[in-house]
Specification:
The structure holds 2 protein chains of 2 kinds. Chain A has helices spanning 42-49, 70-73, 91-101, 107-117, 133-145, 163-180, 191-197, 215-221, 233-243, 262-271, 286-299, and strands spanning 2-13, 16-27, 31-36, 57-62, 65-66, 76-79, 151-155, 183-187, 200-205, 208-214, 224-230, 247-250, 253-257, 276-283. Chain A is an alpha/beta fold. The longest helix of chain A has 18 residues, at 163-180. Chain A starts with a strand and ends with a helix. By secondary structure, chain B is mainly α. The mean pLDDT of chain B is 90. Chain B is built from 11 helices and no strands. Chain B has one domain (15-50, 67-74, 83-276).
Chain lengths: 300, 280
């Protein structure tokens, strides 16, 4: 069973398609990294899943049920755009309202639990408007975690967080998927962070899903390359270009793609009279993979 | 707290859903200063109207009081659809104007804060939202009626108006107006659903309808044509005016019917609009 299954989903605003025949499959228990440029349709898709927007067409299923099913929707937690809290109410009051909304039996215990998870147990009495951006994001997460969510939908949750905040968020997400069996759909522009936790990826462009793959597949697809420095970068680049198909200058380094034999490259350059001062084997990360994919799609 | 890894999805019943939504709305109502401010306004306004009508004019002469009886501050002496003096208008019906503004602020903040996203994420059925808001706002307006009653009675006693009244009619008039609160609250909830993206317009529209100006205008035309005005009671303002100091049990039955029918109508329409359009 999949946590989210979307088929041919479409949504337009004044004739412009924000989501265009989108297909998406999010396996149960996964952390699904939803990637795309600004305006690619990520937030619209998330709002459609949460029932905030009415689709023009298509089908959304959550855990095999229609997304309008009250039983499944009560187990969806969401943080989309902002925490959705009343600014003049305290953190506790905002969370309390959500516990009532969810019909939770032990509200204070639940509030304590989620505040501990987001490391904000001492901030319950602060007014929401007095919280920093990072705190507000964490309160939004706490709000989404109340009850027993089977699915969390998080739109840019690490925006505005400092390095420590990002680490905490990462730990929280891994914890809730591993320990509580929760599925997480998370969109973010900070791909380096996403790469550390995501088990699956979906890449959206102009409202269409252009690729869905697991982290393992991503790992397999990620190009291997060797980056190196020599005493004569231009000369070395010319020599390497004759031998290898994909050689690029990237900042202070030369990158030789689809090769991982460093010894062979060192030997080859030495024979051509170039001394290698630094060499290392690498794999392109999610960010580079995404940028490359986008530029390829752009050319198409 | 232990959390299960099992994926069980139990659909909450309509009563459970409504209970949780009502719980949130009541919690919010009692924790929002707006509610208490409007309760205070409802108590102060009748006192102010009573005091102002007793003020001396430019020549130093005391103005003729507009009311002769304490209970005229609460309800008109007869169903006056067309108003000639401020006294014809300034009674408990004014609560429906303040109520409209309060409801607009109350519901508008759901959208302004973004909290409505939490509600609609967990409550797939839009009917829950409409019903809960209508009921909670009706409760708030009833409280404002009670506050108006207390304020008006005190003011009337202080000024020294007569207390003479047909108690049965007075009770029916007050209960009738309170019953009408449900219909008014449903109208305001509906208006706020329509203008959910425009906070100012939702307040202005609630104020506009709350004044009853459409019915007052229609009544003037109907009276000008010497036609019977009784049919105006099918409207919220008409029935609210009809609940006056000559009310009888028939008046109360009309109030109940009109209020319930408009509530059903606005709730059904509001639910349909929310189901067919983007909510946030």
């Amino acid at each position: 069973m999949n946590a989210i299954e979307i088929r041919n989903l479409s949504k337009s605003f004044r004739g412009m398609y924000a989501v265009d025949n989108l297909n998406m499959t999010v396996p149960v228990g996964s952390i699904y990294g939803f990637i795309g440029e600004n305006g690619s349709g990520k937030s619209t898709t998330e709002k459609l899943i949460c029932g905030h927007l009415v689709p023009d067409g298509g089908e959304i299923k959550l855990f095999g049920r229609d997304y309008t099913d009250a039983g499944v929707r009560v187990r969806v937690g969401a943080l989309i755009e902002n925490a959705g809290c009343f600014p003049h109410s305290s953190v506790y009051q905002n969370l309390r309202m959500q516990t009532i909304n969810l019909g939770l039996k032990n509200p204070d215990e639940e509030i304590r639990r989620v505040l501990e998870i987001v490391r904000m147990q001492d901030s319950a009495n602060i007014k929401f408007k007095s919280c920093s951006l990072g705190m507000k994001q964490r309160i939004g997460i706490a709000m989404a975690l109340l009850g027993d969510p089977a699915l969390l939908i998080l739109d840019e949750p690490i925006n505005g967080l400092d390095t420590d905040g990002m680490r905490i968020m990462r730990e929280i997400l891994v914890d809730i998927t591993k320990n509580y069996g929760c599925t997480v759909l998370i969109s973010s522009h900070i791909l380096g962070e996403l790469e550390k936790i995501a088990t699956h990826y979906g890449i959206i462009r102009q409202g269409k899903m252009i690729m869905e793959l697991s982290a393992e597949e991503m790992d397999r697809r990620a190009q291997v390359f060797v980056s190196l420095k020599t005493d004569d970068m231009k000369g070395a680049w010319a020599i390497l270009s004759k031998k290898f198909a994909d050689v690029r200058e990237e900042g202070e380094y030369i990158r030789v793609y689809d090769v991982d034999d460093t010894a062979y490259i060192v030997d080859y350059l030495m024979k051509s009279g170039h001394v290698v001062s630094e060499i290392k084997k690498n794999k392109i990360g999610l960010e580079e993979y995404y940028i490359e994919l986008m530029s390829r799609k752009g050319e198409e | 707290m232990t959390k299960s890894k099992e994926l069980k999805f139990e659909s909450p019943s309509f009563a459970e859903r409504l209970k949780s939504m009502l719980g949130v709305d009541f919690y919010r109502l009692f924790h929002t200063p707006v509610f208490y401010i409007f309760l205070a306004i409802s108590a102060i306004i009748p006192a102010m109207v009573s005091a102002m009508t007793m003020m001396p004019d430019q020549n130093g002469n005391t103005m003729e009081p507009l009311y002769s009886n304490v209970w005229q501050i609460i309800a008109a002496t007869e169903p006056l659809y067309v108003i000639n003096t401020i006294a014809d208008y300034a009674n408990m019906n004014m609560v429906f104007i303040f109520g409209g503004i309060m409801v607009s602020i109350f519901i508008g903040h759901d959208y302004k804060s973004g909290y409505v996203k939490q509600l609609f994420t967990t409550h797939a059925k839009k009917q829950d939202y409409m019903m809960s808001k209508s009921l909670v706002c009706a409760f708030a307006i009833v409280c404002m009626c009670a506050s108006y009653f207390i304020g008006g009675t005190f003011a009337g006693l202080l000024v020294g108006y007569s207390l003479e009244v047909n108690v049965g009619s007075l009770i029916i008039a007050i209960v009738g107006k309170m019953v009408m609160s449900l219909g008014w609250a449903s109208l305001y909830t509906f208006l706020n659903v329509i203008f959910r993206r425009y906070f100012g317009i939702s307040i202005a529209s609630s104020f506009f309808f709350g004044t009853g100006i459409l019915i007052i205008g229609a009544a003037a035309i109907v009276e000008g044509l010497s036609l019977p005005t009784g049919f105006l009671n099918v409207f919220l303002y008409g029935s609210s005016v009809n609940a006056c100091l000559v009310s009888n049990i028939e008046t109360l039955v009309i109030c109940i019917l009109v209020s319930v029918l408009w509530t059903v109508f606005y709730n059904a329409l509001g639910t349909h609009i929310l189901s067919k359009s983007d909510v946030y």
